[in-house]
Known about the structure:
Blueprint: E1 3-8, E2 23-28, E3 31-34, E4 37-40, H1 47-56, E5 61-64, H2 68-75, E6 80-85, H3 93-107, E7 112-117, H4 123-136, H5 142-153, E8 156-162, H6 166-170, H7 176-185, E9 187-193, E10 199-206, H8 208-221, E11 224-233, H9 237-250, E12 255-260, H10 263-269, E13 274-280
Parallel strand pairs: 1-2, 1-6, 6-7, 11-12
Antiparallel strand pairs: 3-4, 3-5, 8-9, 8-13, 9-10, 11-13
Helix pairs in contact: 2-3, 4-5, 8-9
Amino acid sequence: MKWKIVTDSGANIRLNSQINEEVGFEVVPLLINIGTELFIDNDLEKIPYLMDTMESSKLGSSSACPAPDTYAKAFADADNIICFTLSSGLSGSYNSAMLAKETVLEQDPTKNIFIFDSLSAGSEVDLLINKAIELATSDVDFDNVVNLLKAYHEKTALLFMLESVDNLVKNGRLNKLVGSMIGLLGIRLIGERSEVGQIEVIHKSKGSKRALKLLLEELKQKGYDNGKIIVSHCLNETIAEEFKTLVLAQYPQADIEINQTSGLCSYYAQRGGLMIGYQKA
């Protein structure tokens, strides 16, 4: 195989393993532990059960990145590999993939492998994957594909809206005081990924309708102008469609796709959460 696009399951996109004769695709799953139960993040149909288990469990939970050997196996069957990982500021997945790269190149120095730290998660990574597939299926060499992806990444961003933040608080991603306010008052949390791949809170809103309007205002302020948007939801397609309608009212030419969050993204976004990856002008 000439090209292969690999991602950990911090992305939400799920595609056939063979894009065409020359380009393959593979998702390397993260692991989610809830009490004594282990979830392998490789099946979107498991998400309702994952959420039910997480919400009913009184035991602790955690997530684990793929082992280097798992990445190495994914890199084995292609000449040119682009691998996207969760933000290195949130997960060890990037370091694991880098170790796999070293191992694979020791065995076959002729391969081209680039590990792309997305500094993000979910639907922004989906945008990057779509761009990588577009470039890999065109007449562009490996180094130019990497450079064009880096340039594209400068024009992508991520917003999110959360109805619950229990896991973010438990795992040290969010302040406990902020988390308790959201749980007690029914506040929606609006945030973005920072330039260094961390979670940043930018608004707190009472009720989903106002929260969606704040998300739209953030898009405007960040320079959105009819580019591609991917809206990922955790078991809340209705609110994803409501946001799509709001955006199209302001930007009739917008290209908007809706998909479901992966297990890992559902674990952190939790039930009702939205992740919005978008292209800036």
